[in-house]
Amino acid sequence: MSAVTASLPTSTRATGLGSLASRLTRARLATRQGEGVLYLSSVAAFALSSALALTVAGGTWMFYNRWRNPTGLHAELLAADPSFETMLSMYFMLAMIACALLVSSMVGLASGAAVLGARGRDRRLAVLRLVGLSSADVTRMSLIDTAIQAVVGIAVGLVVYLVTLPAWGFLTMQAMPVAPGEMLLPWWLALSVGAATFATGMVAAWWGLRQVRISPLGVSRRSVGPALRAWRVVAFVALLIVFAVASQVLHFGSGVVPLLVFAAIMVVVIQGFNLFAAWLLQLIARSLAHLPSATGMWAARRVQADARTTWRRVSGLGLLSLIGSYIAVMPLSLNAGDDPTQQSFASAAQWDFTKGAIITLGVGFALTAMSIFIAQASAILERSEQTLALANMGASARFLTRVTWWETLAPLVLAIVLGAGLGLVLSFPLAQAASRQGLELWTGLPVMGIVLLAGIGLAIAALAACGPLQARVLATHERHND
To answer: Which residue from 92, 126, 401, 465 puts its CA 20 to 30 A from 377's CA?
Structure first.
């Protein structure tokens, strides 16, 4: 025994991990246990996230160039009235706000795609430890696998972004048609967007692997984080105070830097909102875990056990609700005053803000639908052993389905309410600034209704799409010889 032990290397690094990762990837795609579906879903999520990020960044780049380098009608209007620059800067400001509102969903989708491929691999990772790979080797190989998914997805997203550029030529903004070349990002900015998506996925994958500990004997243990603490509430309130102060101090018409700072603060506030909402969700689930109903009790205990993951699944709809309430008090019509030139511009651009709102919500809907699907699909596979144990104890398929739906739909209600409230708070400073610039405010309750109905419909569709995957999990492990 000692001779065998002495012959084993103790500190050498395994080679050929890339080749082994590619072989395991082919095996995953060939399996009938849902691994292939998850792998392709992860690639599709990276592709969608990168394509939409490039498109949104391209639109913002277009508004920036039209503001800083006006041509055609804009140059004529600016020559006739220098104050028209304020109108062009307002478009760029709203585009930056749209980016800030969507960043959280894009980052969440990219993170979910990476975690979808990085977690739920306990058995495969355990086998790799048993054949001699170290913990560091297993982590590197898993990161290589995630990197392949991210690179392929980002490349597909870049192609989708370039292919769809001509379609934007049918859109008119600021009384001028959108030229596809205007939305074409410079190489350095496109590379930055792709690098940010890739980095987000890799960090999320690395963090997901940290939650799993596998011994050299192949015994896996998933670490459960501690309960969420009340410091999240304090941090969120502090961020709201910072946002209120910044909205009063920053001068939005004085240049690009105040707009970038304001957008960055909004991104941070939204992240703080996610911290607070996860804590509140855990608190509510803890109180509901004593319900007499078996379905409600089990769903509440699942949420309480991992409130962060549960909130991550529904945070996209909360963000959509935030966007909807934000748009409800935003300026969706122009007030040009008595100047004939600006009246002509206002007449041609009267639907611009409505178009922008629809595009923003459309991007948010696409991100949310994919995010809910991959999060729920990942949860089904990660809980496959628990699901089988419950089935062996006599739990019916209908009971398991009801628990899954309650576990997702109940937090959705909380996400909608909290998101709508935060959207109204965040919109107040910019609504005041828009009013001072001569823009008429609009109360868009119908938009809020559409957001809520469409978001709930997306959640229901995503849950329904995951139904066959859970049925496959139960069928795959069924003992046909009984």
So the answer is: 126
